[in-house]
Amino acid sequence: MEIRQYKDGSGEIIFSKEEIKIIRERGNLKLTSEGLRHFGNNLVKIVAEFQLNFNEKVKNMQSQVGDDIETL
Q: Please, are residues 28 and 19 in contact by the beta-carbon 8 Å criterion?
C-alpha cells in the first residue's frame, strides 16, 4: 500500500495487485503484532507529513466517529 499526498493537500491510497487479491479473497488484511507496530509507526509519520500540505482550514478540522468522509 502506498499513500500519496499532493501539494493541494488531496491524496490517494494505492494498493498493489497482491494486496487487492488478498482483500478480495479474505476481505481484510491481517498483521502480526510487529507488522501492526510498523504500520502504526509509519502511519503516524505520514499523518505528521500530511499537515505540511493542508491549508489552514483543513489543518484545524476535527473528525468524530460516524462522520461521513467524502471520497472521490
A: no
Q: Which residues contact 21 (CB under 8 A, 6 or more apart)?
A: none
Partners of 2 in the β-ladder: 14
pTM comes to 0.57
Give residue 69's identity as a one-letter amino acid code.
Answer: I
pLDDT tens digit string along 16-55? 999 999 999 999 888 899 999 998 998 898 888 888 888 8
Q: How far apart are CA 27 and CA 37, in angstroms?
A: 21
Closest CA to 58 of 6, 4, 10, 26: 10
